[in-house]
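Journal club side-thread
Mid-discussion, someone asked how the predicted structure for our own chain would compare to the paper's figures. Pasting it here so we can look after the session.
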Amino acid sequence: MRRRLRRLTTLALAAGLALPAAIGCAPKVQRSELPSFDFSSSRTYAWITDDLILIDFGEPHPRVRTENNEKLIRAAIDRELAAKGYAKADPADADLLVAFSVGTRMQYRVEGVGLGDQPGTPQTKGTLNVYALDRVTGREVWHAFMSKWLSRSDDAAAVIDHAVDQILTEFPAAAPAGA
């Protein structure tokens, strides 16, 4: 009986440690928000620039930093903001200005056992940041990002849609009309 109880305790402890580790493997969204900013009157947004240049900042990466990916990111953000009740407006009249940035980092990932002197497989970690700025003050009022290990077989549109959906999940909904 004591042996069985010890085994159950060991299994419960192992399960308790394994679950957070498994959850920790999923990409997490990091978010910050300016507490003094009141989103309750925000209904409109505009891109900080209409030029397709936001994805160009940073180290070049031929599969990540493309004009097509910038269009996909902008379209995904537009869809998510519309779903939250925001309307696109002229930059001079918008409540919020929206921007994004993409970061990449190449790293050799060594996985498994018995690889000998092999350095591992080079992989790219992509990070998508989304920013909201108060148009009047120019201050950043909301920022969130997430990172993911990218694979050559990834469907860019699916990766972008998932990342934008996750990042904007906690973005405050637009103020109701007439508020």
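Post-session note: Strands lie at 30-33, 44-47, 87-88, 96-109, 121-134, 140-150.
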